[in-house]
Write a structure and sequence with these properties.
Length: 101
Amino acid sequence: MAHVAPTSHRRATRASHRGHRTADGPIRRSTWLGLTFAMILGLVLTGREHVGVHAGGVTLLVMLVPLTLAVFGAALRRGFGGLSALTTAGALTFVLLKFFL
């Protein structure tokens, strides 16, 4: 019978890296542009007359607002990413104005 080492003395996988978190860098441009595209799509869908399509657009925008705010929160810690972040901020402002005014 082969010898099997007891697990009590084995080191956990990647144990030396626990608690060591590195910053991933600024938020990627594709993230900002994807959020902007999704908001524009939601605005286009809310402009349609069909009830289901309109409701789908509203649902998309309602889900995107907290997600976008969370990405902006992460960007405060990690770095923004240039002009694409401003584009997303403009789209978010437009969406919020549409809902509240």
